[in-house]
Amino acid sequence: MILVLIGYMGSGKSTIGKALAKSLSYRFLDLDDYISEQESASVSEIFKTKGEIYFRKKEMTHLKAILNAEEDTVLALGGGTPCYGNNMSIITESDNVKSFYLKLSIPNLVTRLSKEKDHRPLISHLQTKEDLTEFIGKHLFERSAYYSEADHVLVTDHKTPQEIIEA
Ligand code: S3P
Q: Which parts of the sequence bind substrate (predicted)?
């Protein structure tokens, strides 16, 4: 079984994914880290030197390979993964995959991302909380349709990591 965690940047996919994998004795994979290892470069470096389209192609290739694996896995996607190519159809149509959208409100995303934006190339240039709020509002509006195709939508505001894992 492969449990796929979906959600915007800063929604807790990696943190929750690691703890969930531990509690189920599953392997944990973070798609960004996986791509970084394969490319021997950070996500920011890949965006800078090879461009976003190159990153999206790699993201799709590695996603498909991981979803074909036999091993029980918790997989944290990148925030954009469900929104490119046919990634979301592959996820929802695979029999061995269950997907979960970790849904967090815009103010909570802004609070988290204002502290964690430097390694995220799409938002690292945004200076103020107002800039982040405006960007995330529009971006999330575009992406929500993809995220909402997940098998389960978990609203994570006001929930502890343990409560999210149990849900
Ligand atoms: C992206 C999210 C990032 C990473 C890349 C692009 C996006 O992953 O894949 O910077 O398009 O939302 P996180 O969601 O883990 O930050």
A: 32, 56, 79, 143
Total tally of structural domains belonging to the chain: 1
Calculate the alpha carbon distances from 7 to 24, 41, 51 in Å: 21, 23, 22
Q: What CATH number is attached to the domain comprising 79?
A: 3.40.50.300
This prediction has a pTM of 0.97
105: three-class secondary structure by DSSP: coil
CA angle 40, 66, 71 (to 5 degrees): 120
Cα of 115 vs its chain's centroid, Å: 18
Measured in Å, residue 31 CA sits from the centre of ligand 1 at 9
Find the helix packing angle between 52-67 and 31-39, rounded to 10°.
110
Q: 56 among the known binding-site residues?
A: yes
pLDDT band at 6 (very low <50, low <70, confident <90, very high): very high
Cβ density class 7-39: b for 16+ within 10 Å, e for less? bbbbbbbbebbebbbeeeebebbbbbebbbeeb
Mutating to test ligand 1, I would choose from 14, 28, 34, 43 the residue with most ligand atoms within 8 A of its C-beta, which is 43
Residue-range definition of the domain harbouring residue 56: 2-166
pLDDT at 106: 97
Residue 85 assigned as binding residue: no
